From TrEMBL:
It comes from the Bacteria. It comes from Crinalium epipsammum PCC 9333. Residues 59-84 are annotated as: Disordered. This is Glutaredoxin 2. The lineage of its organism: Bacteria, Bacillati, Cyanobacteriota, Cyanophyceae, Gomontiellales. Pfam families: Glrx-like (PF05768).
């Protein structure tokens, strides 16, 4: 599963989600982290929304529901299994 995480430096919610995504073992996850400060269009779209999680499927990006910051790695994995 290819995931894209829109993030920004210093965002503790972003860092927490990235850390949990990197710990998932039950699903093969390819994670791309995009710093919204690198592109003006990303910053304009997500400056008040990060972290924002997308999956890439068939060449398109599909936004996934925002997981709770309190979700465990296992709960996050279960959520992602619905989108495989």
């Amino acid at each position: 599963m290819r995931l894209i995480l829109y993030s920004k430096v210093g965002c503790h919610l972003c860092e927490g989600l990235q850390e949990k995504l990197e710990q998932i073992q039950g699903i093969e996850v390819e994670l791309e982290v995009r710093d919204i400060n690198n592109r003006d269009e990303w910053f304009q779209a997500y400056q008040y929304e990060v972290p924002v999680l997308y999956r890439e499927k068939d060449g398109r990006e599909e936004q996934l529901p925002r997981p709770s910051p309190r979700a465990s790695v296992r709960q996050l994995e279960q959520m992602l299994q619905k989108y495989q």
